[in-house]
Design goal:
Helix content: over 70%
Number of helices: 4
Radius of gyration: 20 Å
Largest sheet: none
Order of helices and strands: HHHH
Length: 158
């Protein structure tokens, strides 16, 4: 069952990566262009908006690639190895960077007086979700460390 599940997860990650890449190349620039045309008073934010959005999606892509690598370690029965921590640390860094990016983007929008209640709620939600996920990853990292220690202790006993 596990090989099928990891294969299915990897297939879904591949689809997500393809959709994210399509969004970065096609959707985001088009939405930014249309928004700049409809709202000329904030048209100067078009390029920073594109850059921020593309970087945000890039952070998601990095996280998905790390999850892919962790799934490969699971399949190879090497998840309880020091290699896993590198990927978990990258995921943690990406989550923190996403929260910082959301906050910085909101400050730019606020400074340009382009803020709305909906945008404020989305920014707060984004920061809270990234912080919650980062804390969850910290807890899971601790569990991974403990499992690695227990496995090493067990190997010494046997």
């Amino acid at each position: 069952m596990q090989p099928r599940v990891t294969f299915l997860l990897k297939a879904l990650i591949a689809v997500m990566l393809l959709l994210l890449l399509t969004s970065q190349v096609v959707v985001i620039p088009e939405v930014a262009r249309i928004t700049a045309i409809r709202n000329p008073d904030v048209a100067h934010l078009e390029l920073p908006g594109i850059v921020g959005s593309v970087v945000f999606l890039l952070l998601i892509e990095v996280t998905l690639i790390c999850v892919w690598r962790l799934l490969s370690l699971v399949r190879a029965e090497r998840i309880f190895s020091p290699d896993a921590f590198r990927y978990v640390d990258v995921i943690l860094g990406a989550l923190i960077a996403a929260g910082v990016l959301i906050s910085a983007s909101y400050v730019v929008i606020l400074a340009n007086r382009a803020v709305s209640l909906q945008l404020t709620l989305l920014a707060v939600l984004g920061v809270v979700v990234s912080a919650a996920l980062a804390l969850l990853v910290v807890v899971l990292r601790g569990l991974l460390r403990k499992a690695l220690e227990l496995e090493q202790d067990l190997a010494e006993v046997v």
